[in-house]
Amino acid sequence: KTQPSTTKFEEVPETLSSDGAVDEAISGSNFIVNCLDEGQLALIYRLNRSCLRTRTPWITVAASGLEVVVGPTVYPGETACYMCYRMRLVAGEESPEARYDFESFLDRRRTDDSTHRANLVTGPGVAAQIAVTDIVKQVGGLGQPTTRGRLQVFDHLRGEQPPARSPRLFAHECQGVHPLGLGQGVAAGTSGAGVP
To answer: What pLDDT score does 193 carry?
Structure first.
């Protein structure tokens, strides 16, 4: 039995300079697709907070150099949030201090640098193909997205997609949101093992 489609795409061209503006922009949405450049990390963090407050699932899609990164798809109250993911990136680096400095730079930058980044011309297309599969699963109720709380990375140089990676670190953003009280009073940097 075919159900009528109620899917609607809406671009938000306005500058979203506060949490309230982001809340208003995503109001009524059932699923969000984030394609913002890393130079707009402060806005991505606002989106993370808004989606946590409204319990709206969302996915991040990026093409960067020789890699395409799709995910994590964040399900507030069920998976680690975007801040968890970014903290995990910092913690997993060979030099966490240098990565933290770079993250801080991006947070202050507040500029779309996507036109200045080197990408393979095929990168955005590959990113879209990987993402649309999970978006259709989510919106159409066709199963659990592969990127649920995980990353899908495609490496153009090697022509391969390594196994999905999962952030399992809880950030302060998740307090009171994760199931079973996980994240409530959990200090940043502690493990959230057992939660997808």
So the answer is: 32
Q: Which residue type is seen at 177?
A: V
What is the pTM assigned to this prediction? 0.73
DSSP symbol at 72: P
Enumerate residues 6+ apart whose C-beta is below 8 A from 86.
41, 103, 171
What DSSP line would sit under 4-25, residue for residue?
PP--------S---SHHHHHHH
Among 185, 177, 186, 182, residue whose Cα is nearest residue 194: 182
Q: Are the C-beta atoms of 159 and 67 separated by less than 8 Å?
A: no
The answer to whether 41 and 108 have CB atoms below 8 angstroms apart is no
Rounded mean pLDDT, 106-129: 70
List beta partners, residue 160. 155
